[in-house]
TrEMBL record:
The gene is Fdxacb1. One of its GO terms (cellular component) is cytoplasm. It comes from Cepphus grylle (Black guillemot). GO terms for molecular function: rRNA (uridine-N3-)-methyltransferase activity. This is FDXA1 protein. PANTHER family: FERREDOXIN-FOLD ANTICODON-BINDING DOMAIN-CONTAINING PROTEIN 1, PHENYLALANYL-TRNA SYNTHETASE. Residues 7-173 form the 25S rRNA (uridine-N(3))-methyltransferase BMT5-like domain. GO terms for biological process: rRNA base methylation. It comes from the Eukaryota.
Length: 567
């Protein structure tokens, strides 16, 4: 088993280091800023140093915490944990000087820490400037530790009280080991981990079969990391998959089920009645060029991805049609904003089996305004069932009851909140009262009911969110088709307490490891109190030009790499 390497900085009398050195599987490297002569003359330092050396720990003197890599050979720089308790520049150094010390320390730590390592910084109450400090100082009068750490690529992943009394033999000394100690009552230990760097995604070509033809198109830049993530595939352990599986398992007990996901194309063609064109990701078919032979010789899966954009003009040996965003040609395509047209196609073809629940699911794409719960891409599931005319109300009730049962059974393993799910008639709702999901759905076709979900946390009930809609459609004189559409991503967020849709799409293992396959848990954020910044930006729109707010927000998403959280 690998030995855990721990680095301690700024030790005063080495009593903290001595308390750690007995831990099994841990190699301690204890350091201080002063020379050995200065330290050994104080308190119990000499005794602690002797104990450390006897236990096999390394003790290093005169170490500057802002230049750590200078003290260790390259093969010795991989530390799993770095501790820095109560850093201070000494004497009457103000908050600015101490911020600078921390900034240099974090940058130096990044050079000697393993990828999954932790940095522990203990500060006196109020110094950190986070909401965990009680009372909390004004931001300008604090050490701004989260913002300072962010500059070196660290996020605050945990914060808890620094309990000196639980550390055997620990005795706090003053700054630079002065005999006069300082107050550590209410002190906090801040635990930092590396943040994932802001990703840069190359332009991507997506290749699919469309109406028995092979086509390729350039993926809109804000969707490059979201196309074909496979959240709903059989081998997935994503929480969105867990929610979908629970829903279908519950409904399977009430009606026979038929999955028809495999034949759904990413692209639609044709007019969408009532839908605002600003909400659509338009992809325009261009017959002028096609990818070169090298790019397409691997054959076609149902959406094969290439992360390069080389086009060979006047070549169509492989039968590929190139689709580019914004070209001027006759036929227009768009990324599917809904699975409803597929459900309607089944109805129109008459290929449905009466009394059987047909299930369609997959990602859908809609341009929208920026907010924590508004998603340009999410996973939709549609349940479609044809029943005899006059029995549609009992079918609706069965669907709603099954949805309620499955969501409650998923949620009952999570503590701390209550869920309320209710059906509300669609009549009388103004579009401005609806969330993005419901407002868009109401543009597609007439809705009979909204499925609302409320989360009650500690007696404080948040305003309900529309997570699904129910429609009915008369087919011939015998049948009524009932369809229920659910936003799986929004459902997952509400059940698991995820407050920002972007977290569902992260590749960070610190998110995915919280959700073992088939299980849901309350999400525990691994980035606490991230620093946020407000900027004022002015634009002038020429006279007579209409301002498209959704298009503006979409540009903001793209140029900021999804870091803008509100406009």
């Amino acid at each position: 088993e690998a030995v855990r390497r721990v680095l301690l900085l700024g030790e005063g009398n080495f009593s903290f280091a001595a308390s750690l050195c007995g831990a099994a599987g841990t190699h301690v490297v204890a350091t201080c800023y002063e020379s050995e002569e200065e330290v050994c003359g104080r308190g119990r330092a000499a005794e602690s140093i002797r104990r450390l050396r006897e236990a096999g720990a390394e003790v290093v003197f005169s170490v500057d915490c802002t230049k750590l890599k200078d003290y260790f050979l390259p093969e010795e720089r991989e530390f799993d944990c770095i501790y820095f308790n109560f850093p201070h520049c000494g004497r009457k150094a103000g908050v600015v000087k101490n911020r600078e010390l921390l900034a240099h320390f974090f940058r130096s730590s990044a050079e000697v820490l393993t990828e999954e390592g932790e940095v522990h910084v203990a500060l006196c109450n109020g110094q950190g400037g986070t909401p965990a400090d009680q009372p909390r100082r004004e931001w300008h009068n604090s050490w701004q530790i989260v913002a300072v750490a962010a500059g070196a690529g660290f996020i605050l992943s945990n914060v808890h009280p620094f309990k000196a009394e639980t550390i055997h033999g620990y005795k706090c000394t003053g700054y630079r080991s002065q005999d006069k100690s300082f107050c550590i009552e209410g002190a906090l230990n801040h635990i930092f981990t590396r943040s994932t760097p802001l990703p840069y995604f190359k332009p991507m070509i997506c290749e699919i079969e469309l109406e028995s033809r092979k086509v390729s198109f350039q993926v809109p830049q804000i969707l490059v990391d979201k196309i074909n993530r496979g959240f709903l595939e059989l081998n997935s352990n994503h929480p969105v998959w867990t929610v979908k599986e629970k829903l279908t398992a519950e409904l399977k007990q009430a009606l026979p089920l038929q999955n028809i996901d495999c034949c759904l194309s990413l692209l639609h063609q044709g007019h969408l009645n009532g839908v605002c064109h600003s909400n659509i990701f338009w992809i325009i078919l261009s017959p002028e060029a096609s990818p070169s032979t090298e790019e397409t010789s691997n054959g076609v899966a149902n959406a094969v991805l290439f992360s390069h954009v080389d086009f060979c003009k006047d070549t169509d040996k492989n039968g590929w049609v190139n689709v580019q965003e914004g070209c001027h040609i006759s036929k227009q395509y768009y990324l599917r904003p809904s699975l409803l047209p597929y459900a309607q196609a089944i109805i129109q073809r008459g290929t449905f089996l009466p009394g059987t629940l047909h299930v369609l699911s997959g990602p859908v794409f809609r341009k929208c305004l920026i907010s924590p719960y508004s998603m340009p891409v999410f996973h939709e599931v549609v349940f479609v069932c044809a029943v005899n005319r006059g029995t549609e109300n009992s079918c609706i009730q069965m669907l709603v009851n099954s949805i309620k049962t499955s969501i409650h059974s998923l949620h009952q393993t999570l503590s701390g909140s209550k869920l309320n799910i209710n059906l509300q008639e669609a009549t009388g709702f103004e579009t401005t009262e609806l969330n993005d999901f419901a407002a868009f759905e109401s543009q597609l076709s007439e809705i009979q009911y909204f499925i609302y979900m409320e989360v009650d946390t500690s007696g404080c009930c948040e305003k309900g969110s529309c997570v699904g809609i129910i429609r009915t459609e008369l087919v011939g004189s015998e049948f009524v088709v009932v369809s229920a559409s659910l936003n799986l991503d929004l459902l997952t967020m509400l059940i698991c307490g995820i407050s920002d849709w972007r977290m569902l799409w992260t590749s960070d293992t610190r998110f995915l490891c919280q959700f073992p396959r088939g299980k849901l848990r309350l999400f525990k954020s691994f980035s606490l109190y991230p620093p946020s910044y407000v900027h004022d930006v002015s634009f002038w729109v020429p006279d007579g030009e209409q301002f498209d707010e959704v298009a503006f927000h979409t540009i903001a998403r793209q140029v900021s790499g999804e870091t803008v959280v509100s406009i």
